[in-house]
Design goal:
Shape: elongated
Strand content: 15-25%
Helix content: 25-40%
Length: 369
């Protein structure tokens, strides 16, 4: 028995003195491996008498369990020490800026999104969101768009079958939303006036060229209360465009137009100067269409449970991708979605170029170019 105690004491000393995990594993193998000292003692049990075998076997098992526990504890201690040393030696100062060659860029659409939200938030608007897959009521019907309207044709709109077990039915199919106006409908269904929201998000239409893509970004606005007039709409949009393009003077004009969901409807043009090589927003001899707007149609209010005899309001919508092209001189809309790092490095913004009405919107010094 004293031999077992001596072996135990000797192995425990080796465990305690192991400087690293490799040495500790060597101690484990020498003690508990197939040819280890404890294993060799277990092999001698077969030649012992029954009573002596039981007593000696219990003693060996107790010693073996104790050594395994000591090895596990020592291993945990060494692993913790190794991790602490690694963390100490490999510390990273996260306050330092990234190297220019590996620094990421904010996409121009994300930047325009921040700028518009900052402007509208200053004017008291809330941001509202809705689903990309819509039913036809919220995307068309509630917006006073009749079944025979060209916008509802399959060559312009992406439809999704709402029941995969049945044949496609155009009348009951869902749509991948063609406009964020559906968010306005959902807001009016859930909230009673006064309402003042913007609805930025992705929209989808079957179109693809230098100025159109199947997926693009819109931002729409809605104001509903008892006193809003067309004059409020014009003043609101003038202030927004002036702030967005960061110009002191911005000529604007409103041309009569038609949209099913507004009456009267208008398209807003802003002044600019066009040459063969550039487009300058502001005072000039030319005009540029920028957005559509109008007073909310009574049928739209009525479809959402709002009494048009008591409430009225205005709505507007504009493309964020197109605004980014105009403000930052990007010639082709398709490049927005090609995931070209070189393009993003040229047109993107630094991560710390945050938009606000107090510190400035675009902070042109943050432009990557």
């Amino acid at each position: 028995m004293s031999d077992i105690e001596n072996i135990k004491t000797e192995i425990e000393a080796q465990i305690a003195g192991a400087p690293d995990i490799k040495t500790l594993d060597e101690v484990r193998v020498a003690a508990l491996g197939k040819k280890g000292r404890i294993t060799e003692l277990l092999k001698t049990l077969g030649a012992m008498p029954m009573e002596e075998r039981i007593e000696f076997g219990k003693k060996i098992n107790v010693v073996k369990a104790a050594l395994e526990a000591n090895i596990a504890a020592k291993k945990q201690e060494l692993e913790t020490k190794l991790l602490n040393e690694k963390l100490k030696n490999e510390v990273i100062d996260v306050t330092l800026p990234c190297r220019p060659e590996v620094q990421g860029r904010i996409h121009p659409v994300s930047k325009v999104y921040e700028e518009l939200v900052a402007i509208f938030a200053e004017m008291g608007f809330e941001v509202a969101e809705g689903p990309d897959i819509e039913d036809q009521f919220h995307n068309f019907n509630a917006l006073n768009t009749p079944p025979n309207h060209p916008a509802r044709q399959m060559q312009d709109t992406f439809y999704v079958n709402n029941d995969v077990t049945k044949e496609f039915d155009l009348d009951s199919a869902y749509v991948v939303r063609t406009q964020t106006s559906s968010v306005q409908i959902r807001t009016m269904e859930k909230k009673q006036p006064p309402i003042r929201i913007i609805a930025p998000g992705r929209t989808y239409r079957s179109d693809y060229d230098a100025t159109h893509t199947p997926m693009f970004h819109q931002i729409e606005g809605l104001v509903v209360d008892k006193t809003t007039t067309l004059a409020h709409l014009k003043g609101c949009l003038y202030d927004v465009m002036k702030a967005f393009f960061e110009v002191d003077e911005l000529p604007v004009r409103f041309r009569p137009s038609y949209f099913p969901f507004t009456e009267p409807s208008a398209e807003m043009d802003i002044g600019c100067l066009k040459t063969k090589t550039e487009l300058k927003i502001g005072a000039g001899t030319d005009w540029l269409e920028i957005l559509g707007c109008g007073m909310v149609h009574p049928n739209v209010l009525r479809s959402c449970g709002i009494d048009p005899e008591e409430y009225q309001g205005f709505a507007f919508g504009m493309g964020m991708d197109r605004l980014a092209m105009l403000k930052y001189g990007i010639p082709d809309l398709r490049t927005f979605f090609e995931s070209d790092v070189r393009w993003l490095k040229n047109y993107g913004f630094t991560a710390l170029d945050f938009s606000s009405m107090t510190s400035g919107l675009s902070n042109n010094g943050g432009l990557a170019r």
